[in-house]
Amino acid sequence: MALKIVYPVCCGIDVHKTFVVACIASTDKQGVTNYKGHRFSTYTKGLKMLLQWLLDNNCKDVCMESTGKYWIPVYNILENDCSIVLAHPKYVKAIRGKKTDKKDAKWIADLFKHDLVAGSFMPPADIRQLRDLMRYRYKLTCFMSSEKNRLQNCLTVSNIQLGSVVSDTFGKSSQRILDKILENPLDTSFDIEPLIHGSMKDKLPELELAIDGYITPEQAGKLKVIKGHFEDLETRKAELEELILALAMPYQQELDLILTAPSFKNKFTAIGIISEIGIDMETFPSAKHLCSWAGLTPTNNESAGKKKSVRVSKAGCYIKPLLVQCANAVVKSNKHPEIRNRYLRLRKRRGHKKAIIAIARMLLTALYHMLKNKEEYNADLYRKSDVLPIEREITVEQAILMAQFQGYRIKSATE
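The chain above was modelled as a monomer; its predicted structure follows.
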């Protein structure tokens, strides 16, 4: 039996850095497919010619692979006039030995006309802009952490053991001491009492021992460069956060909902969630689909009746660490026993890592329903499902909750 033709006229695009190869597959009523290919430049003029070529051939359905960042300009040009399916390269990869640019485009068109390509999630343009800024903010945070570690390494090499006495090497008192040292690296016998906060007076003898080290001129110069770079990164990050807050203003209602969830107290954490999954939950058929997209569900790998590795996938490289960080925070608190108790039960059987992934999935599921139903976080929904009957008799409501907890779908007797 032949495969069903879902898209009679469609186009497959093989994307490269300097050019794209497009192939239109037109299928008539007899099931015969004719192909028409063309190569276009990735300059804006060339992409506009590609759009006009598609419109001239009455082709509105387009499929292309997501090659690096090169697909983004193509997507931006075609977005308003065509229905675009963006595919992961592993789903549309041609057979080795029969690969050329033209054959790749034809292969993508052949798969797409039968609707055999799984499309990637693409949020609206304003959400994509917010996502880009939030991911850059994450990179700046990583740069700042790296500079902190480099500064601490310089102090360790010079035997300046401030980190062994103070809780934060980048605190005000520590920075004043460090600035004083850098004024004259060869003299560490200065009075540090005027430089420290009043709460640190008891640590004065330890601080005097901690700063008794030897800083070479080279290490002092390196410390100044690191401090200057770190301060510049702080300034750049503050400027970026102003742009992010301005761009996130239209989503204030959704942000307020997310901030009611456990461990979501920072506004930028809520913005990070929206920038990754958007605000329209109708895109995902269920919460399970969203969790799978975020890489929080076990994978299927079974052959000959044997189950192999079921590790979580590598998807969600930005949203997964964010949710895991929130999950690690919430399980340490007694404010949300419905989450902490579940974590403790899972940790006994499965260990910390698997338990924390389960809690991250629990948080994402809650966020899905909160955004879909436009309602705040309700802990009672979890607590009711955790209540086990003390006696052998239970109410109808408890029986329904237990059945739902086991995965059963409840329907009325008349159905």
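The first strand starts at residue 9 and ends at 15.
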